[in-house]
Amino acid sequence: MWTTSAGITNVPAGTSAFRLTFHPSPVFPLANITIAITTDNAYNLYFNNTLVGSSIDWPTPNVWTILNVPSNGPWIFAVLATNFQQTTINPAGVIASFRASNDAQQAFYNWWTGQIASPSVVWKAMSQAPNDFAQPSLNDSTWPSAVILTPYGGGQWGFLPAPVAKTLCG
């Protein structure tokens, strides 16, 4: 996904913000969230305004795990994605996969950026990131929806290697 359909080619260098607000069911009071993510070229990943992790190695997705997340409020995932000027084609994109499970490792939410039309998964995107873009209190209702650039495996990126576990936080 990217802020516009121009993400596949000729994207100027710069930083864009992406947000996903998710309202979990309180059926499971605590969840463990696993996030696999990469961006062309670099990212900072936030969960409820806390930095989870960063990377500048876009061809290698990372996996981040957040333990014991209460399901009593919205979950705000925010990505600050930076596109470097590298080639004449110069693509930009974000791909992310999220999974929430309980202590028994029973998955109760699975979603990825390709499911952008799902009623419970609406990524918002801005090409100019406001300073408070990761704050849960930010009203992103006027932000446009992110644009799916190509099905996974398509475009300039092809299929990516298996994600690399980076850290465990919580």
Name given to the CATH homologous superfamily: Galactose-binding domain-like
Largest sheet entry: 5 strands, antiparallel
CATH C-level category: Mainly Beta
The whole-number mean of residue pLDDT values reads: 81
What would you call the shape?
globular
Approximately what portion of the residues adopt beta-strand conformation?
Answer: 35-45%
Q: List unreliable stretches of 5+ residues.
A: 114-118
Put simply, the count of helices is 0
CATH topology title: Jelly Rolls
The proportion of residues forming helix, as a percent range, comes to under 10%
Going across the biggest sheet, name each strand in turn: 4-3-6-1-9
Number of domains: 1
Radius of gyration: 15 Å
Task: Quickly give the structural class.
Answer: mainly beta
CATH architecture: Sandwich
What does this structure look like?
By secondary structure, the protein is an all-beta fold. The chain has a single domain (5-169), classed as Galactose-binding domain-like (Jelly Rolls), CATH 2.60.120. It has strands at 14-22, 30-40, 42-47, 50-55, 62-70, 75-83, 93-101, 107-112, 123-126, 164-169. Strands 4-3-6-1-9 form a five-stranded antiparallel β-sheet, with no helix packed on it. Strands 8-7-2-5-10 form a five-stranded mixed β-sheet, with no helix packed on it. The chain is globular. Mean pLDDT is 81; it is low at 114-118.
